[in-house]
Design a protein that fits this description.
Blueprint: H1 19-49, H2 76-79, H3 85-117, H4 132-168, H5 179-185, H6 196-211, H7 220-237, H8 242-247, H9 264-284, H10 293-311, H11 316-328, E1 332-335, E2 338-340, H12 342-349, H13 351-356, H14 359-403, H15 411-445, H16 452-474, H17 476-507, H18 513-529, H19 535-548, H20 556-573, H21 575-582, H22 595-604, H23 612-619, H24 623-626, H25 635-670, H26 681-684, E3 698-700, E4 703-705, H27 707-725, H28 730-744, H29 764-769, H30 771-777, E5 778-781, E6 786-789, E7 799-801, H31 802-812, H32 815-840, H33 842-858, H34 868-879, H35 890-922, H36 935-942, H37 946-967, H38 971-984, H39 995-1016, H40 1031-1042, H41 1046-1051, H42 1054-1076, H43 1082-1115, H44 1122-1132, H45 1152-1157
Antiparallel strand pairs: 1-2, 3-4, 5-6, 6-7
Helix pairs in contact: 3-4, 3-19, 4-6, 4-7, 5-9, 6-7, 9-10, 11-14, 14-15, 14-16, 15-16, 15-17, 15-21, 16-21, 16-23, 17-18, 17-20, 18-19, 22-25, 25-27, 25-28, 30-35, 31-35, 32-35, 34-39, 35-37, 35-39, 35-40, 36-37, 39-40, 39-43, 40-43, 42-43
InterPro entries: WASH-4_N, WASH-7_C, WASH-7_central, WASH7
Organism: Gadus morhua
Domain WASH complex subunit 4 N-terminal: 33-586
Length: 1158
């Protein structure tokens, strides 16, 4: 046993317990999951990078397109092959003729219709250059030559068809009725365009060339043939007689042995088929299942005319029946905006029959058009609602049926359901398209005005039409898969029906040639069905069954289902082409006048603004047609004109309105406190424009219009431009930007203008230019370094502080600081001139000298203090000299002058502080101000480029400038003292030395004024109210410094005298109160309380003035004596020119020239 080998069947690894299968399934599931995730990631990347970012995909931009129409590789001779040679030949001839007619029809629709339709387009009426129409016709001649050849070919084909049919029906009763099928396919081309006027101009141009051929470098012998050709083209094509010429051809050809006009069998067969086709068409027109019956109706009428011209007989009953259809179908759209009126056609082409009818009936038919149009326009709104429900429910069914896969157990049922859904979509598209085209073209043709309601309704139908097309396109992968299965199923059903009929024929043992033809035709139909459902095969089936349905081969209950199956097969095989054809909106080019009304409607109903995409897709449908235009040098010219026209309308009626309304809404929202407009939504309505911003970009031609980006750009541009015009409004526009972001989701761009902030207030430049206005309208607060507006028309007062000035300096640069000080100097020079004149006045000077003498004489008695009563007497005494109309004395005006001088100095102080603030914030990134490296030297050491060295030197200069500016801000006061002090202290300005003596009366005047201003704060009328005016203290301190009179003023001990005086009076009041408390006289006590309170207020005001003056003196370095300052100046060797002189040489005031020279 040990020596035995294990049989291969017992090898362990061959044992299968199912684990391997389970493991494989798990791995496959994981792999499928990975693929799904990876696909979704790729899809996300594709969506992010994809150029086509619109909601509606542009069909012309498909990177990969599915062509569902099968192409036949075999020739007709190979397809039509049976043992019956005669039948083969007959079927082949008619198949070839039908194919030829289809090709000619396709060529006419794509090439010639469009070339003729767009002739003259692309040039506006206002910009037509002299001779342009002749040039266009010159370009068009070659096209007309091609058209002439095409028409000739059509004539030949028509004659050939008639000859072939006549040969078949040469009184031979036993022949098959093959005309039924060929009659269906026989379509007569009829278009009448009148461009005779232009060709007339062109012919006149040729005559002028005749007279002077040398000038145009053309040989004369070439002109005559060309002129003949033009006359031939005009006669053949441009007189609206193409169809007339076609039916009036000579069909009898004895040379060929073909007799047509006298062929009674052919005439009878022809008439029978016209009646049969008409019966089929009439029953379907106007029905929900109608799909191409209107085109067939036009074909039947043309066949009727051809029959009349060949055989010269009229079937009155049929003629009347044809006219009766006009009540249901007053007009048929042949292509674009070309309408065909059957009553006009039949009455002009078959005049013999028209004469038999009374005029009333013909007029009644024409009157029916107006009735039809009126009924259609009234029913439009109802139609829109109905189709809206139909199409949306159909789209839901499409999504539902296509999203679920095939169920193997119910495959036939699924395919049948899908087939019906697809066909239903085509039927809806056909019905909607027919309503739009017929209504619009009839309005245009009959020159009737269209109401806005009708326009809106028709545009809604256009959207529905594109929605149907979009649904098919969006699910094209699934549709393509389904169509191939559906066609196979339909072919199978048709084969079963034909197989049954074939067995029935074979079972009948009687032999006859007709039976053999029938059997052969059924075999041919079977062979054609066994293969892809190409156009050629379906044509062969149709022709074969025209023969095969004789002799009751099919029962009635079998024939109708077979015809239905074949009809479905036709539609399903050309599904994509049918959808494209029915949903084609190229006719909108001729009705683009409705576009502005449509846009206004979209704007008014912003909720469903997404429908814009459908309309733009519809407007783009005419582009392929435009490419066939031959009258312009390049088709791009025509396209560009159209593009500009549509975009101009789009901008005017939607984008620009949207921009303006959004801006208006933002403005009103930001300025709600002004109550500019009634914003109650219950009264004025509410329009939510934000819906437009959720739209994906709209694509038209090769351009995307992103509504959100467009409005954002407009607002950015507007806000930026308006901010640059008025920089102080930047905060308003910043608020509007934020609101636009919150309310509409717009990503606004920051303006990045020089940093104007809420902290800026009045601009430094503005103050500098108008410093005389500024110092009179603003009050200075010394402690907080702030200027406050005296009075304002608004409910608020403007303020200016250091941050405002710093931001303003950052805007304009530090160079503005020196300029500001220079302007202040100019201002002070003028004010000191007035100051000098006041001090030189005899009334003032005499009083001051008198007071100085009095003080010197009595100072020992008054404890070295200047008496308060003397100052008060001076203040009252000045009033006797006169007052201004608004009740101000000369001393009040002098006090204001000193306050303005002080304000100017306060402004200089603020400029210095603001400069330091600005420089410190700019230089904060420099680590050590004491040790700044030289970047230029370092760059040179490294041997870097010349541009880098220049940049480094600029950086060094900037750093140096910032460092020096941050250090030398303290020099401004010193300069302003230095420039005026020598002249103030000179011997010829002795009258100014009395100034220290006028300070006490000025102080009394100031305190009275200040208390009066503060009391007005509590009153209703706040005119003249103020709580600070430290400009007076600054002015007094500055002038005392200029006159070097700090010691003289201090020797008066003025504020000590004031304090003593008020404390003494307050003690007396308190003492009196204690005495009167026993008498209990309430009125007297109240008076004493008020007196005490008034004294406290006055003392407080004087104390505040004292503190302010003491603070102000620090700025002017009061710690140095006059002698020390003189010694310092001598050491520095500074000389000062005289700055004061009067016109007559006497010392009256500062001399501006000398001061400026300093």
């Amino acid at each position: 046993m040990a020596g035995e080998t294990i049989a291969p069947d017992w090898e362990f690894d061959r044992f299968d317990d199912g684990s391997q299968k389970i493991h494989t399934e798990v791995q496959l599931k994981n792999y499928a999951k990975f693929l799904e995730e990876y696909t979704s990631q790729l899809k996300g990347i594709e969506d992010a990078l994809d150029e086509s970012i619109g909601d509606v995909w542009d069909f012309t931009l498909d990177p990969i397109a599915l062509k569902l129409v099968p192409r036949e590789q075999s020739s007709l001779l190979e397809l039509i092959k049976t043992d019956n040679k005669v039948l083969n030949k007959v079927i082949t001839v008619y198949a070839a003729l039908c194919s030829e007619v289809k090709k000619l029809k396709y060529e006419a629709e794509t090439k010639f219709y469009n070339g003729l339709l767009y002739y003259g387009e692309g040039v506006s009426d206002t910009s037509v250059v002299e001779g342009e129409s002749q040039i266009q016709m010159g370009r068009f001649i070659s096209f007309l030559q091609e058209l002439s050849c095409f028409v000739s070919r059509c004539f030949e084909v028509v004659v050939n068809i008639v000859h072939q049919l006549a040969a078949l029906y040469n009184n031979n009763k036993g022949s098959a009725k093959i005309i039924e099928s060929s009659g269906v396919h026989f379509q007569v081309i009829y278009i009448a365009f009148s461009i005779n006027e232009v060709i007339g101009l062109f012919l006149r141009l040729l005559k002028s060339v005749h007279h002077n051929p040398g000038k145009f470098s053309i040989r004369e012998e070439k002109l005559k043939p060309f002129e003949k050709l033009l006359l031939k083209l005009e006669g053949q094509l441009l007189d609206g007689m193409i169809l007339q010429a076609c039916v009036e051809q000579r069909f009898d050809d004895p040379a060929e042995g073909v007799s047509v006009a006298k062929n009674s069998a052919f005439a009878e067969e022809f008439a029978f088929n016209i009646r049969t086709i008409f019966t089929n068409v009439e029953s379907k027109i106007g029905e929900p299942s109608e799909i191409d019956q209107r085109d067939k109706y036009a074909g039947v009428c043309s066949l009727f005319v051809l029959h009349f011209y060949i055989f010269r007989t009229v079937d009155k009953k049929l003629y009347k029946s044809l006219l009766d259809v006009c009540k249901k179908v007053p007009a048929v759209t042949l292509t674009a905006n070309i309408l065909w009126f059957p009553d006009n056609f039949l009455s002009t082409k078959v005049q013999a029959a028209a004469k038999m009818l009374d005029k009333k009936s013909l007029q009644a038919i024409k009157a029916q058009r107006d009735t039809y149009l009126l009924h259609k326009s009234q029913a439009l709104t109802k139609d829109v609602q109905s189709y809206y429900v139909f199409v949306t429910s159909w789209m839901m069914k499409m999504e539902a049926i296509l999203s679920r896969g095939h169920r193997s157990e119910k495959l036939a049922e699924d395919l049948n359901g899908r087939c019906n859904i697809f066909l239903q979509g085509i039927l809806y598209a056909y019905s909607i398209s027919t309503i739009i085209k017929t209504t619009m073209n009839m309005y245009m043709s009959m020159q009737r005005p269209m109401t806005k309601t009708s326009v809106k309704a028709l545009c809604r139908l256009v959207e529905l039409l594109k929605a149907v097309e979009h649904t098919f396109h969006r699910r094209s992968m699934v549709v393509a898969d389904s169509v191939s299965h559906i066609t196979q199923q339909l072919q199978s059903q048709a084969l079963n029906a034909i197989g049954t009929a074939k067995r029935r024929v074979i079972s009948d043992k009687k032999y006859s040639e007709q039976r053999l033809d029938v059997l052969s035709s059924l075999v041919l139909a079977e062979n054609a069905l066994n293969g892809p459902s190409t156009r050629e095969r379906r044509l062969a089936i149709s022709l074969a069954l025209s023969v095969g349905t004789q002799m009751k081969t099919f029962k009635d209950e079998e024939l109708l289902p077979l015809q239905l199956v074949l009809k479905k097969l036709d539609l399903m095989s050309e599904l994509k082409e049918r959808v494209r054809l029915q949903c084609d909106c190229s006719f909108l080019y001729w009705h683009r006048a409705v576009f502005p009304i449509y846009l206004d409607d979209v704007y008014d109903n912003a909720v469903d603004s997404a429908r814009l995409h459908y309309m733009f897709t519809a407007l783009r449908d005419c582009v392929p047609c435009m490419l066939h235009a031959k009258h312009v040098e390049s088709c791009d010219q025509l396209l560009e004109c159209y593009h500009e026209e549509i975009m101009d309308v789009f901008h005017e009626h939607l984008l620009d309105k949207l921009c303006k309304d959004i801006e208006k809404d933002l403005r009103l929202s930001v300025h709600t406190h002004l109550k500019l407009d009634d914003r109650n939504p219950f009264k004025v309505g509410l329009k939510d424009l934000a819906h437009f911003f959720s739209l994906k970009p709209v694509r038209f031609f090769n351009r995307f219009v992103d509504i959100k980006a467009y409005v954002t750009h407009y607002l950015d541009q507007t806000f930026y431009n308006l901010t640059t015009v008025a920089l102080h409004d930047w905060a308003t526009y910043s608020e509007m930007r934020n609101l636009a972001s919150q309310r509409y989701g717009l990503s606004m761009t920051e303006a990045h203008l020089p940093s104007q902030t809420l902290e800026q207030g009045l601009d430094v430049l503005e103050i500098m230019r108008n410093i005389h206005v500024f110092v009179s309208r603003y009050l200075y607060n010394l402690n907080n370094q702030i200027f406050i507006e005296k009075a304002s028309n608004n409910k608020h007062l403007n303020t200016i502080n250091i941050r405002h000035i710093a931001n303003s300096i950052r805007t304009h640069g530090t160079g503005i600081m020196n300029t500001t000080v220079n302007f202040t100097y100019q201002f002070l020079r003028k004010k000191f001139y007035i100051f000098s004149q006041f001090m030189y006045d005899e009334h003032i000077k005499s009083r001051l000298i008198k007071d100085i003498r009095f003080y010197r004489e009595t100072k020992d008695e008054s404890d070295q203090k200047y008496p308060f009563d003397r100052a008060e007497k001076f203040n009252r005494g000045i009033r006797k000299l006169g007052i201004t109309p608004d009740g101000q004395s000369y001393l009040d005006q002098f006090r204001q002058l000193i306050s303005q001088i002080g304000n100017a100095m306060g402004y200089v102080r603020m400029i210095r502080s603001g400069g330091l603030h600005c420089c410190s914030s700019a230089i904060r990134f420099v680590p050590d101000l004491e040790d700044i490296v030289n970047f230029e030297e370092m760059v040179k050491e490294e041997g870097l480029s010349e541009e880098t060295q220049k940049a480094a030197s600029v950086l060094d200069a900037v750093l140096g400038d910032l460092t020096s500016n941050s250090a030398e801000g303290t020099e401004y006061f010193k300069k302003l003292v230095g420039v005026f002090a020598p002249e103030f202290r000179s011997a010829k300005n002795m009258h100014l030395r009395n100034f220290y003596m006028i300070v006490p009366p000025l102080a009394v005047n100031f305190v009275e004024h200040s208390i009066g201003c503060k009391e007005k704060l509590n009153k209703k009328n706040k005119s003249g109210a103020a709580f600070t005016d430290d400009g007076f203290a600054m002015g007094v301190a500055y002038i005392l410094k200029l006159l070097d009179q700090y010691l003289e003023f201090d020797s008066l001990h003025w504020f000590q005298a004031v304090r003593d005086k008020y404390i003494k009076e307050m003690n007396a009041v308190v003492k009196e109160q204690s005495v009167q408390a026993t008498s209990q006289d309430e009125k007297l006590l109240q008076t004493m309380n008020l007196t005490q309170k008034r004294l406290e207020i006055y003392l407080q005001e004087f104390e505040l003035l004292h503190f302010s003056l003491s603070s102000a003196r620090i700025f002017f370095r009061a710690d140095k004596t006059a002698a020390e300052e003189i010694q310092e100046k001598r050491d520095r060797g500074e000389g000062v020119n005289k700055a004061f002189s009067s016109a007559d040489g006497s010392s009256v005031g500062p001399n501006p020239t000398e001061a400026a020279a300093k």
